[in-house]
Amino acid sequence: MELFAGEYEVIVIGGGHAGCEAALAASRMGYSTAIFATNLDNIALLACNPSIGGTSKGHLVREVDALGGQMGLNIDDSFIQIRMLNTGKGPAVHSLRAQADKNDYHRIMKATLENQPGLSVIQGEITEIKVKSGRVVGVVTDLGDYFACRSAVVATGVYLKSRIIIGEYSVNSGPSGFFPANSLSNSLKDLGFTLQRFKTGTPARIDGATINYDRMHVQPGDEVIIPFSFLNDTLAREQIPCWLTYTNEKTHDIIRANLHRAPMYSGEIEGIGARYCPSVEDKVVRFADKKSHQIFIEPEGRHTNEMYPQGLSTSMPMDIQRAMYRTVPGLENVRIMRPAYAIEYDCIDSKELKLSLESKSIEGLFFAGQINGSSGYEEAAGQGLIAGINAVQYIRDKEPVILDRSQGYIGVLVDDLVTKGTDEPYRMMTSRAEYRLLLRQDNADMRLTKIGYDVGLVDENRYDWFMRKYERVEGEVNRLKDLIISPTREVLEYLEGRGSSAIKSGISLYELLKRPEIAYKDIESLGGEAEGLLRQDKEQVEVSIKYEGYIDKQLRQAQQFKRLESKRIPVGIDYTNISGIRLEARQKLNLVRPESIGQASRISGVSPADISVLMVFLEKRRREN
Amino acid sequence: MLFEETIAAISTPPGQGGIGIVRISGPKSLGIAREIFVFPGDRVYPFRDRYLHYGKVRDNENRIIDEVLLTYMKAPRSYTAEDVVEIHCHGGIISVKRILEEVIKNGARPAQPGEFTKRAFLNGRIDLAQAEAVMDLISAKTERSARVSVDQMGGGLSGRIRDIRERLLNMMAHVEVTIDYPEEDIDEPMISRMREETTEISKEIEGLLKTAEEGKIIRQGIKAVIVGRTNVGKSSLLNALLRENRAIVTDIPGTTRDVIEDYINIRGIAVRIVDTAGIRETPDQIEMMGIERSKKNMDDADLVIMVLDSSAPLGYDDRQIMKYLRDKKSLVLLNKMDKEPLLTREDVAVELGGDIPIVNTSMTLGTGIDKVEDMIYKMFFEGEIESGHDVTVTNFRHQDALIRAHNHLADIIEGLDTQIPLDIVSIDLRGALDSLGSITGETVADDLIHRIFSEFCLGK
Questions:
Q1: Closest-CA residue of chain A to B135
Q2: pLDDT at B284 over 60
Q3: What is the CA radius of gyration of chain A?
Q4: Phi, psi of B21 (to 5 degrees)
Q5: Exposure string (b/e) for B150-161, b if CB count within 10 Å is 16 or more?
Q6: What are phi and psi of A402, to 5 degrees?
Q7: What are phi and psi of A239, to 5 degrees?
Q8: Residues from chain A contacting residue B180 (CB–CB below 8 Å)
């Protein structure tokens, strides 16, 4: 029995990190939107580690922020510790990571959704997606409510037919005791989607009151806080430390002696886990000669004793969990508050999507987050934002927003998922990006804010902020080009003090800043401080000047890449009968149905010769029409 | 313009045709022509669209490679509808290959199979009816060239390239893992010896590139020059070598060269012998010019054979030439051993002051010729040329890829020396891997991630 319960332009299924961004984007672009969560208490739930960001993930958050998304602002409001990682390396890989207050993170995001005009927040499990003439038309809840829509975003995370496994015990359940969504998988299957089963896991939550911190190393946050959102240049806040400790041979002995009880090895788990996210038993088996693994103890919030022991993810039975945790220095008397578990869930084959994240077979139906085979809050948010924008662009009958691999980590993420697919939960890494030096966390706004503004997601306030920053940065670069300093005694002494070679004649500060040992603050000492520059302005000036040569080199590579990207392949090409393309390549091309020559060239099993033939074929087809 | 890269290939069939044509297509064609082509008398003229230009092709050290005719066809009125330059040179394999090498050194890349035709079609030059044929041509040519290429590579070369790629990949995995996992306690011995490792790999590639030069010797033969005073037995030596080896004597047709070159075959190696005019023992202007001319010939040669008359003492110009031999791969013949000796091996050895081999011969009696052949063979194929002969780079595309990889490695070393952060240096690591991948058909992306996770213990 289905009852008509309402009508929205965009419906978002799932209130996790992808769903929140999708719903906020669609409603902020002016389209009536509803977001459904199986339980409103799991909105923006940090179901695993209580942290946001890290290498490449911090970049994703900055990109979401630059496009007008919420994740950066939300973590800025809820972090309890923040660090810039990789500062000893080049600017391309500096990465922000914050410890979140898990409860605040959820609470603040939920409030943002509730207060967003044009957005309805509804508790309900979606059991069926309604499709008419190849287009999505509505969704049905478990209670029989029918909601009509013009486009929909599926962002169900790990909830589809999820099953939790702890040793010999298993139960059909979502994370942290939330209900699973058991019906939607079948609806997706009926609509023709291929489902696969992935697996992930999480460590136990332990009682901080039972930890002996004297036996651990303290890991404080940065003294100077650099926030995620470009709108927050600096923030001051009292921070809470993390702690570092290590496993040892005793821990490993217990694991080895009980491997037969580990579901991963007993065959209990069929889902495919990620190589980069191994359980501790996995690490002990695969890296048998490593005597110790590091464990970070991370607080789950300001108002709880619960701690998250990063590095002790396991699906061993409870007695083994307790025994092995207690071998770790500082955890001798630890009490487990919530068990560690592995979780299996259904996801789709992301190759069945377009680069807009719309289904290739059903119009108006978009997918984002873990259901696409990715893992991670930030990966989910990035996809959610793109899916939300494109759900609106679809209704508007406008070109979808597609970021390419030289525009953002989001572009790399979506392209990898859609073009290559993934056979394990996909995690973003800086090594996946070819144009890393262009995709820095410091310039995400320069890369993307205009795109967000053009589709109506970035508001006037943010755009104005961005334009003024842009002008300040440009002004400062020009000032440094024009400001020539002479080899006076003072200057020479200063340079010597910095271990920098002497100058013989006048040199612009711009040129001087290119020296590896000279930093922007040296320039300020030598040439005077510029008026009214923010921290992020200076960072931008310094990086763009200092690495100009390498940045130009990457820009040239990116241009070459873009030429192939801009050669569009018309929809509806049947590759079956193109003589000259090898059979394997024809099958792959039929499966992925690439949108450009560039995308086609990245499909595994398609050779450069196949691409050559394809280009000739397309030209022939063009001339025939 | 659709394509930014300039491509080049030999567009006449390999073998003994009367002329060979090197074709260049793309925006840099004209620039390359200006770089390598000289008009008679070193004058500079503009190239005229669709005219034949007579002149010579020279390499970057100003040595003449061949006399040629050059046509320039301005876009779009050419086969590919791009700027096209065709260089018509002497047939056979030597000239065309050397000219192609120069063209590539100056900014073109070797064309893929069927690429000219592909460009012609994509640039609208070939009509629709021919499209299917073009597609078949590309795939057929690619298949054939892959087969040939694999044959050429053999297990040795592909193995060596895989090894190099493997080492680079390993290095990159170590660099990348410290970037993506800054908080893992990973031992990083590799990072500290990155410069060393890069230098080693770079040398390895240099070794392979050197075999490309050797490959050239195998393909094109050794150029040997016979020098000496008049009447010491140079012509007799040449005749003896020719007779002994039933040489294929090919006057290169239609040339106005001032030296006659003959090919002889010593145990399967083609030796191109250039006989120089004798140098006369008169201390005047003309004699000086003779020495200069000999020197010029010696400059170009892979091997210099000097013939001395053992029945006469060393003269001034003998000594002049002998000084010069030290810098060249050379061989000294002490001829006329049938006569009363006035010059001993020891005298010659002292004068030469190096490890230059000396062979006693008598052209009149026909003795020592075998020894000369032995010596030439040994000098070129037994250790005198370095590196193992198990692998040889003979394919232009492979050579091009190796050169590109080598350039990236040079940039890595420069980056490390100027304290450029590792994550930026790794741009060139990726570049080097991509270049080598173009030979082996492997891509960096998946290999790298796989390597990182199989090598390191990471994760939450």
A1: A613
A2: no
A3: 26
A4: -125, 130
A5: eebbeeebbebb
A6: -125, 120
A7: -110, 160
A8: 55-56, 429-431
Q: Is B185 on the interface with A (CB under 8 A)?
A: yes
Quick one: pLDDT at residue A181? 97
- Tens of pLDDT, residue by residue over A30-85, are 999 999 999 999 999 999 999 999 999 999 999 999 999 999 999 999 999 999 99
Averaged pLDDT score across all residues of chain A: 94
Q: Is the peptide bond before B110 cis (omega within 30 degrees of 0)?
A: no
pTM: 0.82
Three-state SS letters, chain B: CCCCCCEEEECCCCCCCCEEEEEEECCCHHHHHHHHEECHHHCCCCCCECCEEEEEEECCCCCEEEEEEEEEECCCCCCCCCCEEEEEEECCCHHHHHHHHHHHHCCCEECCCCHHHHHHHHCCCCCHHHHHHHHHHHHHHHHHHHHHHHHHHHHHHHHHHHHHHHHHHHHHHHHHHHHHCCCCCCCCHHHHCHHHHHHHHHHHHHHHHHHHHHHHHHHHCEEEEEECECCCCHHHHHHHHHHHCCCCCCCCCCCCCCCCEEEEEECCEEEEEEECCCECCCCCHHHHHHHHHHHHHHHHCCEEEEEEECCCCCCHHHHHHHHHHCCCCEEEEEECCCCCCCCCHHHHHHHHCCCCCEEECECCCCECHHHHHHHHHHHHHCCCCCCCCCCCCCCHHHHHHHHHHHHHHHHHHHHHHCCCCHHHHHHHHHHHHHHHHHHHCCCHHHHHHHHHHHHCCCCC
Tokens standing for residue B441: 């058909």
Smallest CA-to-CA distance from A501 within A490, A512, A509 is with A512
Q: Which has the closest alpha carbon to B140: A614, A580, A616? A: A580
Segment B70-85, tens digit of pLDDT: 999 999 999 999 999 9
Q: Decide if A278 and B457 are in contact by the 8 Å CB cutoff.
A: yes
What pLDDT shows up at residue B115? 86
Q: Above 60 in pLDDT, residue B31? A: yes
Does B379 or A319 have the greater pLDDT score? Answer: A319
Quick: pLDDT tens for A470-489: 999 999 999 999 999 999 99
Token pair in block for residue A106: 């959820």
**pLDDT score, position B397:** 74
- How far is residue B33's CA from residue A431's CA, in Å, rounded to a whole number? 41
Cβ separation A516–B441 shorter than 8 A: no
A542-546, B277-281, B324-328: which is most confident:
A542-546
Q: Does B452 touch chain A (CB under 8 A)?
A: yes
Residues B460, A48: C-beta atoms closer than 8 Å: yes
What pLDDT sits at residue B296?
Answer: 73
CA angle A247, A248, A250 (to 5 degrees): 120
Residue A489 has phi, psi (to 5 degrees) of -55, -45
Cβ neighbours of B131 in A, within 8 Å: 616-617, 619-620
Nearest to B118 among A434, A604, A612 (CB): A612
